[in-house]
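Quick one - inputs below.
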Amino acid sequence: MALSTFSLPGYVLGVNAADPQKATSLSPHLLGGVDFQSHKHQHRLPKPRRKPCVCASLSEAGEYHAQRPPTPLLDTVNYPIHMKNLSIKELKQLADELRSDVIFNVSKTGGHLGSSLGVVELTVALHYVFNAPQDKILWDVGHQSYPHKILTGRRDRMPTIRQTNGLSGFTKRSESEYDSFGTGHSSTSISAALGMAVGRDLKGRKNNVIAVIGDGAMTAGQAYEAMNNAGYLDSDMIVILNDNKQVSLPTATLDGPIPPVGALSSALSRLQSSRPLRELREVAKGVTKQIGGSMHELAAKVDEYARGMISGSGSTLFEELGLYYIGPVDGHNMDDLITILKEVKSTKTTGPVLIHVVTEKGRGYPYAERAADKYHGVAKFDPATGKQFKSSAKTQSYTNYFAEALVAEAEVDKDIVAIHAAMGGGTGLNYFLRRFPNRCFDVGIAEQHAVTFAAGLACEGLKPFCAIYSSFLQRAYDQVVHDVDLQKLPVRFAMDRAGLVGADGPTHCGSFDVTYMACLPNMVVMAPSDEAELFHMVATAAAINDRPSCVRYPRGNGIGVLLPPGNKGVPLKVGKGRILVEGERVALLGYGTAVQSCLAAASLLEKHDLKITVADARFCKPLDQALIRSLAKSHEVLVTVEEGSIGGFGSHVAQFLALNGLLDGKVKWRPMVLPDRYIEHGSPSDQLAEAGLTPSHIAATVFNILGQTREALEIMS
Amino acid sequence: MSALRPTFPLAAPIGGGDGFRRGRAGAAAAASSASAAASSASASAGVGVSLYEVLGVAEGEGRAEEIKRAYRRMARRLHPDAAASPPGRATAEQARRFIAVREAYDTLSDPHRRALYDRSLASSPSASHQELDERSHWRKHWQDQIAELCWRSIDKDSEDNLSWGARMRRKWGESLN
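Output:
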């Protein structure tokens, strides 16, 4: 599933003073913008049968162990090779121990829980039957790979997962030879697996290749492109479809579980519920008896026909693509899984095979099983009670502010609609969905379709807001260029997770959006420096109706400025920035939330008796030419700061300065951008320091340009 | 006639025979559509109800005439246009029942399909009345599919298979010999 983080929808605090009746519930947020879905929806879900927990230390108050239970078998397994001599009974015990290990690890670090719990048995079975790392096992998206990491030599490093210099939260080739492919974005595993299978064939090797992909990731087009090609090439490989009936993230709206979007889910459901017509098989065999003839050939013909009936209408989808369908299989039954995997492995020539495994997200942890969102992404929590640790923050996340802003705009303008790609919680649009159920569209993991769909809506006079993460919009770039910008259709893009994103790392980092959006001829590109500006920019985007526009904002919470009344922003004048602090000699021109770092740098510099100018550009396109001209003419030094790659805001400013002869005089222009390398996952402050964009770095840069290197060193130490 | 194996072996299958060609075995087609109709009729009527019960005739006994009369009787009662009951009342339920009746008649009016259906009832008389556990159904299901995988493997290995994968497999297979 297209992932990121675990920004679950919070409830909106009652900032709307005009409407006291609106129900408010406490929605504390963790720093860094991690929210969590409360348990208040538990009572709406049926009580599942609970698997009895192994071991004796069951807490009285809670439904799970308070202390980490002993894991004798897991302690003997460091690598898959250590599992090969275990009996099936021992493997089941290993699975239980592995499950508790995952729960206790994630309880201390936070991370993705539900999906890992759903695939514990599958992971054990795969490593038991196959021989990684020669056999390639690919985990789509990778957020369910925690059990895999534990079994492949990284158990002792699990406490460092998603932290600076620790394990990645997704699979990563440079981390371990057992991670066959780097993941993070969804639906890439089948493509990569096919590439590995074909590479194996070309080199004459004999290993197995297995891709594990979820039903959510299966909604993306790339999965079909890959299956289509796999069926055509007919190379031996195994695709495991991990079906837990959860195709959107988080797996719940504000009011309860999300019913799966898309037609594929109902097809998969039909597959699960179709009663195999065993009677028909007997009948068909009887028919063969009557017909006589070569039993072998006819039986096969009848079998093929019977299989078409037995499998039901859904499996023909995969069959038509050329994959042999096996299933559905109970994904928590170790015997079944091992039997099937062994059989498929031992069959000499299979071509591409798809094994449909049915699992339950969050299985084995009662709180996760009951939660509407299945504990997809969690903060640190207490294992015995399932309660997540929330630290209070005074402000909400930019995601929530965006949702509020959009709702406020949509209240007065009925043409505003919202589109997202299976990220209702991550984009905050679940809140919009609750308020306007007919005007919010979840297209599944299909960013390309989302953009062109929005273009179509714009043709009909609607005002579509496409809320797609900055890094996921990369998937839809051609659609942005060709279907939206070229035709100058007024589609609004709300790019969340712009800039560095913390624990999710480079796979989710939104470094490139300024570059790839600002180079488009018709696009209006803007970025708010704080949450109030975000409200105004949403209003501005709603007002721009003759060309496309985009707004980028980061992961994280607001800084605490006063919000506009009624959450309704006022449209800004397009192409107009603002000066925040008047000073002299040096001007810092920030774009987006980097402006906050500039203000902090300015106060650092003030301690050294240097009062500088800080300006907020607001727009990268069109640039506020008058502002830049005046800054360049009245200062010795102009530093542009942005949390984006080269080719973005700074480059546009440089272009303008150069073309207007402003670089021919005495002003020194310097850009500060993200470095030309990928910044590894870690805490946001560590990442910013690694990138060299902290207030200290900015202040030190200023001193260096002015020639005051001693002061620069002082600041940096 | 040679003795038939009751189930397909999970071990290596018998060698020989050309590749399977996808063809229509007429009887198999009839068998499949009979049971497909049967299952959907039963599904429409409710689990555990036989087609005879849907039409309201004694099981296995009715001659063609009786089947036809029973169908006409039910249709008159249930058909939306011919319905005796006032319009707008419980029409969805009626429609569902009418579909069940129609499908039952389709199967039972055709002597060949009816014979197949009777045989299937006979071989597992209690199946239609039993709520079997879904998961154990699944197991039987994929066991059959695994069995078929063996057959398919032969097919894929045949010389007629011209896919890229097959060509590569042959190439490496030859180099080993």
